[in-house]
Predict the 3D structure of the following.
Amino acid sequence: MIQLRRRPLFVALLAVLLLVAAACSSSGGKQEEQQAATGGAGKANTPQITVAMITHGAPGDTFWDIIRKGAQAAAAKDNVKFQYSSDPDSGKQATLIQSAIDAKVDGIAVTLPDPPAIAPAVKKAIEAGIPVVAFNAGIGQYKESGAMSYFGSDEGLAGETGGKRASDDGYKNLLCVIQFQGQVQLEARCDGVKKTFTGKWSKIYVNGSDLPSVKSTIAAKLKQDKAIDFVVTLGAPIALNAMDAIKEAGSSAKVGTFDFNPQIPPKINSGELIWAIDQQPYLQGYESIDSLWLYKVNGNILGGGLPTLTGPFLVDKSNIEVVGKFAEGGTR
């Protein structure tokens, strides 16, 4: 009799346990899906905020795809509504910042390739109560704009790293190629190369928005000065066009570049590209969004009043195995 009375209680308890297990399984499945979307980090339960990222990225430049991947990963983790816009024209970039102000976004992440043209718009955002962080370009000028943090590489130091390596490798006649005239971070790179390169140094400007013309301009320069034995480019797409230009010009010059895209590791492995200097754009995008979320939810300010450096890091055949798989995956 006792066993008969206990049996219904046992069955009811078993049914409850099965329901709990099923609920946990369902919740776990949803958590796994969420973590896959956010790089395994889960998702914040803080109120959603809107952050605008406004850059000087040119159409077709794959570098900015990597920036956006990092920003989108942070946005997914932090419950941030992410808005991206770009224009290589400084005046138009400033207009995009004003549009974000008018839209009353909760935060702005911005590049400062031309501080005199862009900083006034940044100051307007701050006056409107919108926190701003800078990244990628403007390391020496971001404080003057009022931006509270900066994420990026020390481009002068990066240039010095490239110039020294080219000298150590024995090259005698170096050409530095700038794809957008007047952008402070690009000028800093070439100036840094000049500072530490011990041979003959020269630079040319090309139109980074027109890659076929990039190739033809570099080829013409190599045909004009056959003594050039090393070409330094300041972006991965420019490097790929420089390699084609070398073939077209019948030159034996080699190439070193700044920045990565998925095509760069195979070129390093083949020897067509001697090295690439990485500034970790994925990290720049990620930290820019994450820092604004931290500021909004907890008042945190990263950097302690100094730039948060993401580079430089020189990659060649000796260490391409370490970062190559990430670069080919589009996140390095």
Residues 1-39 have pLDDT under 50 and may be disordered. The two ends are 71 Å apart (CA to CA).
